[in-house]
Amino acid sequence: MEVIRQAHEINLLGEDRSLFLSNLNTHTIDFQQLPHTKLNITSVRLTHPENLIRRAIYDWTSLEAEQGRSYTVDRERVKNSMILIHDAVRLFATALKANLSFKDMDLPSGDCNIHRKWEHGRHIINTMKLLTRNSSLVKESQGFTTGRMDLDRFGDRSYFQLDVTILFSQFFHKLISWNPEDGFTETFEKEQIREKIGGSIQNKTFIVSTRLGAPFLMERTPEDNETLEGNARFEGYSIDLIQSLSEKLKFKYVIKLVPDKRYGQYNKKTKKWDGIIRQLIDGKADMGICDLTMTYERRQAVDFTVPFMSLGISILFSKPVKPTPNLFSFLLPYSLDVWMYVGVICLFTTALLFAVVRLSDEEWESDQVIETDTVEIKVLRNTWNLGNRFWLTMGSLMGQGCDLLPRGVPMRLITGVWWFFALMLLNSYTANLAAFLTSSRIEEAINDVEDLAEQTKIKYGVLQGGSTMSFFKDSNDSLYRKMWAAMENAQPSVFATSNEEGKERVQKGRRMYAFLMESTSLEYITERHCDLMEVGSRFGDKFYGIALPLNSRYRTIISQELLRMSERGELYELKMKWWKRRHGDPCITEIRTDENELGIEEVGGVFIVLGVGLFVAFVIGIFEFLWHVHKVALNEKIPLKEAFKSQAMFALKFWIKYKPVRTRMNENDISRRSSKATLKKWEIKNDKIDKTD
Fold first, then answer.
1. Which residue among 128, 522, 663, 689 is least packed, with the fewest CB closer than 10 Å?
2. How does it sit in the membrane (predicted)?
């Protein structure tokens, strides 16, 4: 006990340290002398059948009472020397009784100083050795307090049973038994162990090591005249989780931030851990709760409960800036210079056609015949005026045609070449427009981790000292090793000291930096920063768990409670609370339409051109109508208002298909109608025809 007390004074005792005491009398030590010390002690003892111990104690106290003496002994404090002497006396008595039943024996004198051997002593020893091998004597051996007793030919005990015990509530309780024949045998029910541990966790105060990082742990903002102290200074998923566990398991906790703000990474040079793992190893913390990933390397140093959250690694990247829609995007396939060249060549071709058509004899056709007394003259008319020539060139550009077609070889050649030009121009425009509209869609610079690894323009990094860094560093996959080499050799450094720093680098990088991080933290960030997004599918499955000191007795009971919370949906509700509902309005997910659809923003210019064209045509039509009204008023010599009214009323009678036109004629006009020239007056001079008024 003195050694244990000294160990307590130099802080060698505690629940994070396990002691194995090999002394078979450890169970007799009164550990109530250290009532406020949490002890984790395992020991062994010889088997003590409860009924035989009680009977032995009863025999001892009864014998003392017969002698007029008072004697009390606690059955938990019975030392091995007492029960071994008790069994030795019983064994000797049984052997002596067996010999007395077969032969007469002279008992030796009670003088212990005689150096002469008793003649029957060897025979009694042999009887003791053979006692349990003789079926008729087996029943006599069932009363040994240390259980079955076998002696070999040398008189040594060859069979005994040991109990492995563990200290609970200042008393030792049996876990398993061992004997030379059967080995270890579990004798203590697991439920009883859990009940014992559950009882010991109540009212215990755990030191919880953690680190700041939204949404797991954040500093609370005090309200008016509010002073925050202790655990009340913090809020977040980790706080709600440990609070729920403490209410269910009835323990207390104290939150302490890890000094170096790190999760826990093993330094192969110093052979030491840092961060939360270091705190648990040094006994400065009883639990580690945050976004702490369960890894094989960490599992060698500490224990983990069952996972309370599953996750993976994903890519945090900036959303592409959506280009401003251009109403006149239909003009973009060609540059301004090309459009100017098209306009100029269209006017030039129209002018060239006008010149050639005047020179080509094929384009003149007979309009009427003028007969005189001596000569019959055909009047030829050219149907190609400047307007329909321009209509031909424009119609070809638009993929349309014209009612008039050229007949002369020069005109056909010019028109054919123009059609070829229009065909190439139209098809090139259609192809370029489709390509432009496709390329103007929001395209991702990277779509997955393979794209990220294959390019060198966009830099990427991870959290310094985190599990994601260990994933790439220790991976055997060629892709991930390639990415780790790129990150390790990058200048300046692409590693971030926190997720917040990584997020800021992505925002400031303008799609030139990507941050590889755990998907849970990424989800939280993208819910509150609408300019960021998750790229690609997740890889490298991971799990978050509560870290405990190695071989912690509380791992099972805490794991069981976490499983119950998961089955009841409490862990899901906690995540929804801190990821979706708290600290800001989540980003509204845009409803993505079919990528092949064009919006009004992209084709609105076409509607504007159509609208302007229709409006201009309507205005011209109005002016033509008013000019026609003016001519009618002059011809019929009626007021302009009356002419406008009559023409407007006729225009509104849309079911009438024929329109009569009245023309007033004077005497000269009447005389001309009787002329052979009809309707027009022609004057013939020197075989030339001139039109006169």
1. 663
2. Multi-pass membrane protein
Beta bridge partners of 548: 303
How many beta carbons lie within 10 A of that of residue 626, not counting itself? Answer: 13
Kindly state the tokens that stand for 301.
């140093």
Q: Is 379 helix (H, G, I), strand (E, B) or coil?
A: strand
141 DSSP assignment: G
Structure tokens at 559: 């794991």
- Alpha-helical regions (H) of 475-518: 478-489, 499-509
515 in helix, strand or coil? strand
The domains of the chain are located at: 2-106+119-189, 190-221+228-308+545-590, 329-439
Peptide bond into 307 cis (omega under 30): no
Neighbours of 108 (CB within 10 A): 14
Alpha helices in 67-188 (DSSP H): 80-100, 121-130
Write out the H or E segment, with its range, that includes residue 527: helix 519-528
CA distances from 176 to 144, 185, 488 (A): 20, 6, 52
Work out the number of other CB atoms within 10 angstroms of the CB of residue 570. 16
What confidence tier does 51 reach under pLDDT thresholds 50, 70, 90? Answer: low
**CA atoms within a 13 Å half-sphere pointing along the CA-CB vector of 121:** 5
Which tokens belong to 30?
């009164």
Give the DSSP H/E element, type plus range, for residue 297.
helix 296-299
> How many CB atoms are closer than 10 A to CB 452?
22
The sign one gets for the Cα dihedral 292, 295, 299, 303 is positive
Which pLDDT score is estimated for 143? 62
Q: Mention the CATH class of domain 190-221+228-308+545-590.
A: alpha beta
596 confidence band (pLDDT: 50, 70, 90): low
Q: What average pLDDT does range 41-53 have in this prediction?
A: 71
> In the 8-state DSSP scheme, what is residue 588?
P
Is the bond leading into 492 cis (omega within 30 degrees of zero)? yes
